[in-house]
Amino acid sequence: MNMHKQHQLVKKEKKINSEGPVMNTRAITPRATDYSQWYLDVIAAAELSCNSPVRGCMVIKPNGYAIWENIQRVLNGMFREKNVQNAYFPLFIPISFLEREAEHVAGFAKECAVVTHHRLQLENGKLVPASPLEEPLIIRPTSETIMYSTFADWIKSHRDLPLLINQWANIVRWEMRTRPFLRTTEFLWQEGHTAHATNDEASDFTLQMLEVYRRFVEDYLAIPVICGKKSESEKFAGAVFTTCIEAMMQDGKALQAGTSHLLGQNFAKAFNVKFLNSAGAEEFVHQTSWGLSTRIIGALVMVHADDKGMVIPPKIASVKVAILPVWNNADSKQSVMTKAEELARNLNDAGIETVIDRQEGRLGPKSFEWEKKGVPVRIEIGPRDLANDTAVVVRRDTGEKAHKNFAEIAPFVNGLLDEIQKNLFTRAKKYRDERTFSVDSWEEFQRVLEENGGFITAHWCGSADCETQISEKTKATIRCLPFGQPKEEGQCVFCGKKSESRVIFAKAY
Amino acid sequence: MNMHKQHQLVKKEKKINSEGPVMNTRAITPRATDYSQWYLDVIAAAELSCNSPVRGCMVIKPNGYAIWENIQRVLNGMFREKNVQNAYFPLFIPISFLEREAEHVAGFAKECAVVTHHRLQLENGKLVPASPLEEPLIIRPTSETIMYSTFADWIKSHRDLPLLINQWANIVRWEMRTRPFLRTTEFLWQEGHTAHATNDEASDFTLQMLEVYRRFVEDYLAIPVICGKKSESEKFAGAVFTTCIEAMMQDGKALQAGTSHLLGQNFAKAFNVKFLNSAGAEEFVHQTSWGLSTRIIGALVMVHADDKGMVIPPKIASVKVAILPVWNNADSKQSVMTKAEELARNLNDAGIETVIDRQEGRLGPKSFEWEKKGVPVRIEIGPRDLANDTAVVVRRDTGEKAHKNFAEIAPFVNGLLDEIQKNLFTRAKKYRDERTFSVDSWEEFQRVLEENGGFITAHWCGSADCETQISEKTKATIRCLPFGQPKEEGQCVFCGKKSESRVIFAKAY
Fold first, then answer.
1. What is the mean pLDDT of residues A247-254?
2. Which of A247, A337, A447, B155 has the lowest CB atom count within 10 Å?
3. What residues contact residue A243 under an 8 Å CB cut-off, 6+ apart?
4. B118 and A127: CB-CB below 8 Å?
5. Min Cα separation A91/chain B (Å)
6. Measured between alpha carbons, how far is A418 from A442 in angstroms, rounded to an integer?
7. Which chain B residues are closer than 8 Å to A95 by Cβ?
8. pTM of whole model > 0.90?
9. Superfamily of domain B58-303
10. pLDDT score at B11
């Protein structure tokens, strides 16, 4: 290669790497080398988020936020089917509200951001807080208290029930150790809050919303989950019971992907949320709350991404197809671009969101860019392909390539997107099932956890003491008491006492 | 009316009034009696928002939030056409960031909520703030500083420009006197922030986004606006210049409905946002920011609502048609409901969002409910209408009724919605134009403002001193220096010095 050519190459690559506002050129650490670093590298390479100057807070970049917007769109549709309405409640909660529900305050007091002043003033050239508030306010760590104090005004009669409200909001929990998406001081979520006339109805709605989450996470995010109930010590602060969906990450650890609580009348009593029943008597309402957060984007990375970067399931990807035209000279550029535009039009008309990468440059680096961003399908078109009236269709999940005539590309891609969606789910489920171990002795429990990680299904006597000791000794916690588990006589894996069914243990995020 | 009948009536009305979670039964104070109370009454009657237990913060109820979601949907589409991408930045801003841009800190320091602690602990049975932060954080009153400190990392080369980012977020400004939507301690908005290679491009983009706002507010919200530039004293803290769209409310006062700023290199210098130009030299970027908030919902009320309640322009209404079936007995109920459902299907199939009010009750109260909520079109169906194969179509803006055969209703309503949209705009424009006065003397200025209110177009010499004195004496401020104003030699309405064109004065929200 002569100097001139080499120079050109470098110039081209530079152009590509500096295109766009948020390019990252670091190589991705392989999972096998350093899983934690791999996670951070994928997020950087796919431009999902970056650090902010505020401790523990991240910036969600356009690529990451686009995933969140798609999550919002799909979930809003599912919530509407349940007659849930969106509303917005204040960011601030008076401290006294938190005090009203004893378990709730214990659960959240240690991680509250507290607003104490409402003005800044200059003092010796520095801005300092001025004008203290009469009652300090906390930034919502969750909105039960602020919402239910208002529900008390809204609900008068049984005809006002059920009240089904959802809020999309930012939440603050002061976390000591943070990781992008998985655990940040501020995060985004939706929180549903409902009030019902009877316990049965509330309990049923709790499970209906868990099923909404299951359906969403499995069908759209292609993440297989286990539905179940939390143990007493893992339940939400103030709930009667907590249900959850649990997913396995590629390091065998569990991540709670969504949660739905039956609150019973605990908060209703604390906030005096009553209704007149049809017999004219006053009763406290029965409540539920349920939430899913930007944490799920962390799960999306940790379930589907690989050593080449992000892999976005087609149903949640904003860009489903990237067309990558390449050319040798001005003439071939024109004919390749014309074809690329025609193809993009066809695909977009068929409802398949498609973009064209119009950058100068070789196929390699262009392809690499879209691969690490996780776009489900790439279509490469060069002058030689054009001569054959074909293009190369590459799927992100397997890397498999297919040469296709232009006329057959749209229907082929349509089917391919379905296939990728299914494959991602199947692959993740296979991964999970292969790392789920039925264990019957404490020795085996420790060995399996040490050697394989993953999920352990084991008998547990139901005592909080055993639960605590297991977790202290192994860092594995009870992820859930799975629904629909067959009854099976057995002995607690830790203490040997009687147990009637298995629960799932795992280390968790 | 005998006792039995009266009892029945009350019972029926009670049923209707207690249907739904957030019903309000107070009568609406007429505008002419008490404009401020009318505004609050309309918001309560239409269930747009309610007070919260936190000083100065409101709860946005489902009806109000649905309007905001539609605003988001339409604006997102318009932003996408400009290649603007959504992202999300932290809620918190370190105090030191605010200090970096001198005008900016002066503009916002007085109204910042300050987070000083990150934990609560029990002390004598009361929760009190614990664990002070090393550096206090403010809750974003706007995000220039936190965003641009990150832009400095994102932007390296001229190829990274323009960077076009938008954020949907909650904002906190500690206001002493608050009013729902118009001025609340916490509010929702979108804030666009862009960086460009040249001043010309940034300046042009500032105006492009103002035009987006004009188009959105006029075409979707049916609110006529005047586009112009703010005077120096009214511009954004830290901007080179501020442009705005100004609308007139039904009490003749002005409301700024959207704003777009050229920030020049002020923030770029404060946050070191530089790029390498194509010649390889370092330059500071040129920036813009632009925003529109939930305040616009206050404008929507104050421009279109009447003494009967809210009036929502069809293009921003989630529910465009409410079908109100009424019946005498079980038989007629069935046939009327069947017809109502058929009609709702037809309208929804035609893309016209339609709901059926299935409540028991007389037509009057049912109709009144949907009237005060501002739904653009109501369709009344009773047994008698059914016999004639007709229904009564009522438009909200004029109250006009039309008897229509079922077969013609869908196309008729389609046209009617367009007509209502146009009429609301025309009516508001007529109202504004009739209350806009060209004034040439200080006496006339004071008299017109006193007697008529509204907008005054008058000559102004350009001095901040005159501006301040006018505002101190009359409470009217310069709303804007309108674009496209013809040059006209004249004399400052206050000091008599030379002026080359008129500006708009008004009292404002």
1. 98
2. A447
3. A206, A207, A210, A227, A228, A229, A230, A259, A260, A261, A262, A480
4. no
5. 8
6. 43
7. 120, 127-128
8. yes
9. Bira Bifunctional Protein; Domain 2 (3.30.930.10)
10. 34
